[in-house]
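Researcher: Re-running this chain for the archive, since the previous output was lost when a drive failed. Same request as before.
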Amino acid sequence: MGIDSELNRGSGGIFDVWVDGERIFSKHEEGDFPEEVEVLRRIQARG
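Model: Regenerated structure tokens:
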């Protein structure tokens, strides 16, 4: 799995995970940080 990450400085505790232009996780919407396995599961579910 070729994964590249990028940190974009923000404010207000924003933590989003984007894959190919699609947001697959939002701390604001879900209320907490994701577990690593949850991020991987969502990436793999995209195909």
